[in-house]
Fold this sequence. Notes:
Strand content: 25-35%
Structural class: alpha+beta
Order of helices and strands: HHEEEEEEEEEEH
Amino acid sequence: MTPPLIHLAEAQKSAPVTDWAARIGWVVGLLVFVVFVYWLMRQGWKWRGTLQGDLPELPTAPADAGEPRMTMSGRYHGSTTAGQWLDRIVARGLGTRSRAELTLTDQGLDVVRPGAEDFFVPAAALRGARLDKGIAGKVLPEGGLLIVTWRHGDKEIDSGFRSDRAGEHPAWVEAIDRLSTTQQGTTEHHTSTTEHTETEGAR
């Protein structure tokens, strides 16, 4: 190796790192920025929860919910206002993603969530189900999510689930639609009978 090249190699090896203060400053600044963004996200979450404070307490499963029609193990990915897949609902623990065990009976849909609040959707509150690809904060391949639409208080809600065996989603859509249709038909018949009875009594 020629002398100039030797001197150049030695200079490259011995070049000291002298700008530690600037490097540390950048790292600290980045950490502060990350913490600030996290704080903003938490404040936004709390603010949204406050706005949704009028949402009633979630129903719990009855002592005797009947024989299971279907069961599912999977994940709960969140809830939104029905038809508005980005309008996340965080009140009453509905914003917490978790594992989920679903059981469908004649009484309704029981959602058990380890580490989060369980809830129950009465059959009368079910409005149907469909396959979709996204819900606030989660996007999957087409048909990757089971969306259950239900009514709670004066609000209609879309709740997103994904089974550990996604191939069973269509059967769940069919079963929930059948139950909700049957329930609505029973309610309409009961209402019609009541109105007819009251009319007859008034004569």
